[in-house]
Amino acid sequence: FRLRRRKRALAGVHAPSNPQKRRASPPSLTAGAMGERAETSLMVGLGLVAVVAVLQMLKPKSVNPCIKKESEKVVDIYALPDMEELKKSDGKVVFCRCWRSKSFPYCDGSHAAHNKCCGDNVGPLIIKASK
């Protein structure tokens, strides 16, 4: 009985079981293919929103939000006479600013991999000893 009623609804024929309760409903609001399409569209839309949200959460975030973004790599060099005891054989000390160095606070070059992965431009702080 339900199958016959559904076929009639899809065909646009409206035959209520009780003639006293005749309702005029537009064919677009009857149960059938239109309702199933709306349900499918809703599920596809929700699925796409979920996928986009997960991909945004998995994307690595940039450490450097706004400092010298036009540069490929941010490097600052300062000459400070008070830091003579910090100088190495080449006359400079390199400090990490990416927070990924295994020898933190000194730079070990970890920023290079981070920059490639995230599209960031973070670089070390280089302190040069005066001569």
Automatic annotation (TrEMBL):
UniProt cross-references to Pfam families, sorted A to Z: zf-CDGSH
Keyword entries, A-Z: 2Fe-2S, Iron, Iron-sulfur, Metal-binding
Listed cofactors: [2Fe-2S] cluster
Single Gene Ontology MF annotation: metal ion binding
Gene Ontology cellular component annotations, sorted alphabetically: mitochondrial outer membrane
Region (Disordered), start-end ranges: 11-31
UniProt cross-references to InterPro entries, sorted A to Z: CISD1/2, FeS-contain_CDGSH-typ, MitoNEET_CISD
Superkingdom of source: Eukaryota
All residue ranges annotated as the Iron-binding zinc finger CDGSH type domain in the record: 73-117
PANTHER family: CDGSH IRON-SULFUR DOMAIN-CONTAINING PROTEIN 1
Protein name according to UniProt: Iron-binding zinc finger CDGSH type domain-containing protein
Organism: Alexandrium andersonii
